[in-house]
Amino acid sequence: MTNIEKNIAAVRQRIQLSCHKAGRNSDGVTLLAVSKTVPPDAIKAAIAAGQRDFGENYIAEGVEKIAALAEEAAQYGLQWHCIGPVQSNKTRLVAQHFDWVHTVDRLKIAQRLNEQRPADAKRLQVCIQVNIDGSRSKSGIAPDEVLALAQEIAKLPRLQLRGIMAIPDLLAHTTPNDVENTINNSATQSIYTPARTIFKHLNALNFGLDTLSIGMSADLEPAIQAGSTMVRVGSAIFGSRS
Ligand SMILES: *Cc1c(COP(=O)(O)O)cnc(C)c1O
């Protein structure tokens, strides 16, 4: 087995164990492999290990890899997720090349994505990024503005609203060495409470969301405990980036 295969197996085991502890079925958690800065050959190794969902932060870099792996995408039904910030001048690339975008936090961006999504493509799958840290982090919409944005996105025919995404500021820069310190940490779990509350609130209003995109390499256990349905894991699969 390559390291990547071993790492994916280990991450899947962590997901399974966390689901078991949380009394959840592990089918309810999708592993999104974050392949930013990773070359196409490493992504191919992950595909060989059965991985199908990949996340990219930098749009130009992501588009290059999506093109390089077009055959694999068709053969294996790969899903490409944009998980980085989307500026207005990048919406066309996202609408044309990605399957998902997790980082919509403004109506203007959603409207552009809707207009620019090609007619022959499936609807673009969308999560609203929520700022759960107050003023500390720069991206994401404030929790009390999510409902209004969700109502507007639900009207856009080329987009499909799937859920809520959050990146806790404190965990945005952790390294694999921090993993032991952060897993199973109930303080980490409570960081995600606002994201879960919004997710449940929208579903009580019949938005029919199925995606709560929370949890990364260092904190997927508490995120699953907090209700994550999609964990975004980079370094624990592909190794340290720096
Ligand atoms: C890089 C990144 C991840 C993955 O982080 P790791 O700690 O490497 O697992 C997840 N989500 C977002 C938004 C990222 O930018």
Supply database-style keywords:
single chain, 242 residues, alpha/beta, TIM Barrel, eight-stranded parallel sheet, 12 helices, globular, binds pyridoxal-5'-phosphate
Helix fraction?
Answer: 40-55%
The spatial strand order of the largest sheet comes to 7-6-5-4-3-2-1-8
The termini sit apart by 24 Å
Write down the Rg: 17 Å
Record field, number of beta strands: 8
Largest sheet: 8 strands, parallel
Q: What is the CATH topology?
A: TIM Barrel
Shape: globular
What is the CATH C level class, in words?
Answer: Alpha Beta
Work out the count of structural domains. Answer: 1
CATH superfamily: Alanine racemase
SSE order, as H and E? HEHEHHEHEHEHEHHHEHEH
The stretches of 5 or more residues where confidence is low (pLDDT under 50) are none
Provide an overview of this structure.
This protein has helices spanning 3-22, 40-48, 59-68, 70-76, 91-97, 107-116, 146-153, 179-182, 186-191, 193-204, 220-225, 235-238; strands spanning 30-34, 53-56, 79-82, 100-104, 124-129, 159-165, 211-213, 230-233. Helices cover 43% and strands 16% of the residues. It has an eight-stranded parallel β-sheet. Helix 5 (91-97) packs across helix 6. The chain has a single domain, classed as TIM Barrel (Alpha-Beta Barrel). The model has no long low-confidence stretch (mean pLDDT 92). By secondary structure, the protein is α/β, with parallel strands linked by helices. It binds pyridoxal-5'-phosphate. Pyridoxal-5'-phosphate (PLP) binds next to strand 8 and helix 12. The site of pyridoxal-5'-phosphate has 14 residues, from strand 8 and helix 12.
